[in-house]
UniProtKB/TrEMBL annotation:
The chain crosses the membrane at residues 7-25, 45-71. Residues 26-90 form the Lipopolysaccharide assembly protein A domain. This is LapA family protein. One of its GO terms (cellular component) is plasma membrane. It comes from the Bacteria.
Length: 101
């Protein structure tokens, strides 16, 4: 399943890159934009839109990464607790078996 996921991700990235390049070459008008009152350097409309899309995608990924990391941390903690419980049960079984014999 990991191979299919990697191929799909690669395919989506390549398609996105091709569409971004195509969009940039089709929209060559030079524009200036202001961001929070600051003038950005003049750039083509295609580059501006693709940059904004890439920035939004990256920020969205980073924001979605926080809950995933929290859940992974919780999962690892619970696995450690479970391992300690299993070891404790095994020790109890051994002491109980040695007490009978």
């Amino acid at each position: 399943m990991g191979f299919v996921k990697k191929i799909t991700l690669l395919l989506v990235l390549v398609i996105g890159l091709v569409v971004g390049i195509w969009f940039s070459t089709e929209n060559t008008e030079v524009v200036t934009a202001s961001l929070f009152g600051f003038e950005l350097p003049a750039m083509t409309l295609g580059l501006l839109v693709c940059s904004a899309f890439a920035l939004g995608t990256g920020l969205g990924y980073l924001v979605s990464l926080l809950p995933v990391l929290t859940l992974k941390n919780t999962n690892m903690s619970l696995r450690r607790k479970l391992k300690r419980r299993d070891q404790e049960i095994e020790r109890y079984k051994k002491t109980k078996a040695s007490a009978k014999g």
